[in-house]
Structures are given as C-alpha cells and as structure tokens.
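[INFO] parsing input record for Molybdopterin synthase catalytic subunit
[DEBUG] input buffer:
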Amino acid sequence: MKKHNVFIEDAITPDFIANSIAKHQTKTSIGAHDIFLGQVRADEIDGKTVSAIEYTAYEEMANLKFSEIREATFDKFDLTCMHIYHSLGTVKAGEICLFVFVSSPRRKEAMKALEYLVETIKAESPIFGKEIFEDETHQWKVNS
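[DEBUG] output buffer:
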C-alpha cells in the first residue's frame, strides 16, 4: 500500500487548490472532476463564537488510515485520480481545512466517490480539532 502524506501545515490556500486542479487538465481520459472544500465555521456555542480550530493528529497512524481509505475508494469506484489533504495546526474561521479532489471518466462516479470519501474521512480519520473561541478559551470539537 502506497502511503501519501495528506497533511498541510495551517490553512489550505487557494493557490495550492488551484495548482492541484490545474495538473489534471491535460489528462484526456478524465470526463469529470469533483471537489470538496471543508471550511472552518464560526459556530456559536454556548454564547461564544469559534474563531479557529487547531487540528492535531497522530500523523503516522492518520497517514496509514488515509492510505486505507484511498485504496478502498479506488477499489469501489472507477477513478482516474484522487487527492486528499487535511490541515494540521491552526486554521481560522473562513479558511479551508480539508481538500478532497477526485477525477473519473464519468460525472456520476466522481460525485458518488466524493461523497463516500468525505463521509469516510469524517467517520474514520484520527484527526482531532480544538475549537478556539474569540475569548481565547477552547474545547475539543465534536465531529459534525
């Protein structure tokens, strides 16, 4: 099983996203791309507003889990390529923390694969988020 490092320090930038997508424009076997961008929300919890989330992970374990997720997804769907990136460190409200990109010869396959991937990542990845509030207090994030 080939391991990929899925982690980006801090927020995932628009330039990184654009460059990742642009690399696939010359692949003529691709008929569809589908993209998910997870963004930190400024949720209000108990009267306090989230200003950022600090993401941490056991990187080796998480990269192994992401490799398993990738392999299972390639086995289940007809995909040409797949990219998964998740932030580590502090990501402010409004910034991107998760970037998932899939390509397939067919649109419906790309769409189904992307939904499967995002749901599996949310359910199975060992990444932890500490919500930091505007008053600088914090709490551990509940997956939602």
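[INFO] The chain has one domain: 7-21+28-141.
[INFO] shutting down worker
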